[in-house]
Amino acid sequence: MELRRKAGTGARIPTSSMADIAFLLIVFFMVTTIFKLEQGLAITLPRSTAGEKIPKEKVAHIWIDQTGMISIDDLVVGVPDIEPLVLAKIRENPGLIVSFNTDERAPYRVVNEAMERLKLAHALRVSFTTVPVEQ
């Protein structure tokens, strides 16, 4: 009994459907992957539709620089001087808006004391102004 060998037949992996299998794996991983976004509080921020130009007479600007120096309408003052100065400005103009501008490196102690002095002066209309981050 003689066994014959078949020529040309060997173990081969069919590669004709390899692209289909790869595509199905990509689709599977895209569908099952969970993209976790940042967790945070669910809040809705107000949006500005239009700005309003306010006359200079109705705004008092308080500036605090990185060293803690305070300036109210280009007049350098100390923390104890904020209350009487703002109170006098409010008496002159009851609709006064105080624009509070601080440097990001300003000492928090000075900023807190200035805000407390504004409370004592009954400055109820305070605007906190920031410089937008440039991208």
Topology:
Elements: H1 18-32, E1 59-64, E2 70-72, E3 75-77, H2 79-92, E4 97-102, H3 108-120, E5 126-129
How does the major sheet shape up?
5 strands, mixed
Low-confidence stretches: none
Derived structural class? alpha/beta
Instruction: Determine the mean pLDDT.
Output: 80
Any overview of this molecule?
Helices cover 31% and strands 16% of the residues. By secondary structure, the protein is an alpha/beta fold. The protein has a domain at 57-129: Nucleotidyltransferase, domain 5, CATH 3.30.420. Strands 3-2-1-4-5 form a 5-stranded mixed β-sheet, covered by helices on one side. Helix 2 runs parallel beside helix 3 (108-120). The radius of gyration is 35 Å and the shape is rod-shaped. It starts with 17 loop residues before the first helix and ends in a 6-residue tail after the last strand. The model has no long low-confidence stretch (mean pLDDT 80).
Quickly list its features:
alpha/beta, Nucleotidyltransferase, domain 5, five-stranded mixed β-sheet, 5 strands, 31% helix
Give a quick rundown of the structure:
The protein contains three helices and five strands; from the N terminus they run αβββαβαβ. The protein is an alpha/beta fold and 135 residues long. Helix 2 packs parallel to helix 3 (108-120).
